[in-house]
Amino acid sequence: MSTMAFLKRSPWILHYDASSCNGCDIEVLACLTPLYDVERFGIINTGNPKHADILLITGGINSQNRPVVRNLYEQMPEPKVVVAIGACAATGGIFRECYNIAGGVDKVIPVDVYVPGCAARPEQIIDGVVKALGILEEKREKMTGKAEIKEGARHAAEAGEGT
Amino acid sequence: MNGLIGAVLFLILAPIAGGLIAGIDRKITARMQGRVGPPLLQPFYDVGKLFEKENVVVTTAQNFYVLAYLVFIALSGALFFAGGDLLLIIFAFTLAHVFLVLGAYAVHSPYSHIGAERELIQVMAYEPMIILAAVGLYMVGGSFYVADIAAATVPAILYLPGVFLGFAVILTIKLRKSPFDISTSHHAHQEIVKGITTEFSGSTLGQVEIAHWYENIFLLGFVYLFFSWNPVIGVAAVAVTYVAEIFVDNVTARVRWQAALKSGWLAAAVLGLVNLAILSYMTIGGA
Questions:
Q1: Which of B38, B85, B139, B257 could form a disulfide with B42 if both were Cys (CB 3.0 to 4.6 A apart)?
Q2: Total domain count for chain B?
């Protein structure tokens, strides 16, 4: 049933380095180490967009990675959320003025949570993910709501045809 | 009648026990790595979540194959706990994995295909040893029926130490643990995307996970057969074997597929065949 809400107890993460300097990426991976151990919250780092619920993305968007980011986002099954990590992912950061940089991640895909910092600290990243869990849950409810409305409409239509 | 009860109990209880064992596994693994680890019920949350997600289907054939995988794994386990013929059980078990491989091949994805190829290599690697284990249990128990083997009063492990060790080697392959987790693994680290499960998502992936729980309980039941003359020692041996597998998982790095294949066959040839040769020499000499 839709009220079970396992989703926020088991968020699987896809981590993508757009054009980051690797500073934020090291901090993302630090979250998985024994010190922070995000698996406590059921968070698993998967390498597969089709298994992921949360897209953690670092670095700005350039012309090379624009289709890649779009593709990764589209391959993730609904409901899904995007967390942009670091100054570059939010706005393009210090690379914003570069000729090849389009700006933050939100130039290509919708972003739900922005985690500031250069580099973002692991605590902040975990905070951002926890924030994202709330949004993920909202999206799930909306999704099941939509499915129920659709189902109801279908039933109504079928009943209408019957009479 | 007893057999039917065993089969029904397996079908109902195995997912619960399998999920709990997976939870304990993750907890022990985390402790071995100096982490706190996820809650005990995490595997159930994961599968529950997978059923909540949108199911992205590349081709509907994959759903059919994965369902067949689940059904045949459950069938082979149910036959086992019904006390059925060990050879039939092993064939049903192999067929289940063939369906999983077909499911991964049904999709035009290179990652999925590499995972499927590696799964086939794993099947090749463990198959000789699992059949030798059945033959060994037959030579000791005098029957291929699990019910007869389990009822035997001879301690099979004393006659089959080599076969048991060989079985422990391929158990590492079957439980998808390092160093033989070449087709896909449970860990947070990333292999070739996600190996054989790359193209499965949502409820289809959930079914693969449930099938894996069934499979683990079946395999632990197989381990128990070696110790079935004494239930207390049997259960203890199953627990020790599983913890040893977790330990091996955490202290080894993944090997190449060639090494996995060699290890499986070496275990079968050296530990399995030599043990059986000595055993047949002993029994013929004694008779």
A1: B38
A2: 1
Question: Is A158 inside any structural domain?
Answer: no
The mean pLDDT of A154-161, rounded to a whole number, is 76
Asked casually if ipTM beats, i.e. exceeds, 0.85, the reply is no
Nearest CA in chain A to B36: A40
Whole-prediction pTM: 0.88
Averaged pLDDT score across all residues of chain A: 87
Beta-bridge partners for A12? A44
Q: Residues B55-83: what's their mean pLDDT?
A: 90
Domain that includes residue B165, residue range? 2-286
Look at residue A149 and tell me if it is in a domain. no
Is residue A144 domain-resident? no
Domain with residue A80: its CATH number is 3.40.50.12280
Which pLDDT tens digit goes with each residue over A115-157?
A: 999 989 999 999 999 999 999 888 888 888 777 777 778 778 8
Chain A residue numbers touching B33 (CB-CB < 8 A): 34
Using only C-alpha atoms, chain A has a radius of gyration, in whole angstroms, of 18
Q: Long-range contact list for B178-181, CB < 8 A, 24+ apart? A: B178/B248, B178/B249, B178/B250, B178/B252, B178/B253, B178/B254, B179/B248, B179/B252, B179/B253, B179/B254, B179/B255, B179/B259, B179/B260, B180/B122, B180/B125, B180/B254, B180/B255, B180/B260, B180/B263, B180/B264, B181/B249, B181/B254
- How much of chain B, in percent, has pLDDT values that exceed 70? 96
Contacts of A37 in chain B (CB under 8 A): 30, 35-37
Q: Compare all CA atoms of chain A with the CA of B196 and give the residue at the minimum distance.
A: A48
**Pairwise CA distance, residues B119 & B100, whole Å:** 9
Q: Which of B28, B32, B45, B186 to mutate to test the interface with A (most CBs of A within 10 A)?
A: B45
Residue A106: which domain range?
Answer: 7-137
**Contact between chains at B201 and A77 (C-beta distance less than 8 A):** yes
- State whether A79 and B53 contact (CB < 8 Å): yes
> Residue A10 and residue B54: Cβ atoms within 8 Å?
no
Domain-located, residue A83:
yes
Position B17 scores a pLDDT of: 94
Chain A's closest residue to B39, CA to CA, is A40
